[in-house]
Amino acid sequence: EKLVLNGTLIDRGEASVDIEDRGYQFGDGIYEVVRVYGGRLFTSEMHLKRLYQSAEKLSLHIPYTMEQLTAQLEALVAANRLDTGIVYLQFTRGVAKRKHHFPETSETTFVAYTSEMERPLEKMRKGVKAVLAEDIRWLRCDIKSLNLLGNVLAKQKAVENGAYEAIQHRGETVTEGSSSNVFIVKDGVLLTHPATNLILNGITRQVVFGICGKEGIPFREEPFTVADLRAADEVLMTSTTSEIMPIVDIDGKPVADGTPGAITLKLQQAFDREIHALSAA
Ligand code: PMP
């Protein structure tokens, strides 16, 4: 098993983290998770574009072009002979004496590794349970930062309650899942929180908008409330690892009739076609 450390492909067991890496001490860094289907990176351009945007928002320097980064990720997937799984990549502000402010000199630490991960087909067919959780995170959720404690606590609440995901809300407004975006369907229209500072603009979320355009499914990026969520015809979440996942139970109460809805199914089928188009390309 290989990984990439600062541009070099090495054995996983040979990698180590400096105790004064700012990612380790402050969570001062950013990351991405890219899906791999049939040995190919899925929507990697969109992920890397978001990575550069996150870097820019934190004045973090990425010492590679998008082409160089893509080539490194492709080489890693090939070296590990990965078929279905993910690539995880992160950049931190590097190693420096522990002071909060940015160090005058430090080179970013770059790590990328792969992990096998099957598509969650069974869950996607049946749907999953969710719980509600107050969104206690900071006000820059648009940045894909390593600081994930709010998300960790929300997901822990879900797991402790036998649920797959926590749906976060700021007061009455539903924002997003602990590691996903959340949508509802009401009267045939798909709704999700707009891409403001309060949510991460998910790549799967953006792929869903593309599908809606092609399939003629009406959608709006518009905040909705916890009451709207409870009264929705369909609820679904999207993420790189969970794809398009129906939510059929919230806090122990069924969503509509408690089975995945028609629009969710249509989105899943179209998403499936995009994945298969990748391996045919
Ligand atoms: N919101 C949060 C907080 C997340 O962690 C994720 C998963 N990375 C998402 C949304 C979904 O984003 P994507 O579709 O790009 O995986």
TrEMBL record:
- Listed Gene3D superfamilies: 3.30.470.10, D-amino Acid Aminotransferase, subunit A, domain 2 (3.20.10.10)
Q: From what superkingdom does this record's organism come?
A: Bacteria
Cofactor names from the entry are: pyridoxal 5'-phosphate
One GO MF annotation is: D-alanine-2-oxoglutarate aminotransferase activity
Official protein name in the record: D-alanine aminotransferase
Query: Subunit arrangement?
Result: Homodimer.
Q: Into which EC class is this enzyme placed?
A: transferase
Q: Summarize the protein's role.
A: Acts on the D-isomers of alanine, leucine, aspartate, glutamate, aminobutyrate, norvaline and asparagine. The enzyme transfers an amino group from a substrate D-amino acid to the pyridoxal phosphate cofactor to form pyridoxamine and an alpha-keto acid in the first half-reaction.
* Matching NCBIfam families: D_amino_aminoT
Q: Name one Pfam family in it.
A: Aminotran_4
Query: Which keywords label this protein?
Result: Aminotransferase, Pyridoxal phosphate, Transferase
UniProt-listed Enzyme Commission number(s) = 2.6.1.21
Species per Swiss-Prot/TrEMBL record: Heyndrickxia faecalis
**How far does the signal peptide extend, from start to end residue?**
none
Annotated PROSITE patterns: AA_TRANSFER_CLASS_4
Q: Could you tell me what reaction this enzyme catalyses?
A: D-alanine + 2-oxoglutarate = D-glutamate + pyruvate
UniProt similarity note: Belongs to the class-IV pyridoxal-phosphate-dependent aminotransferase family.
Q: Extract the CDD domains matched here.
A: D-AAT_like (cd01558)
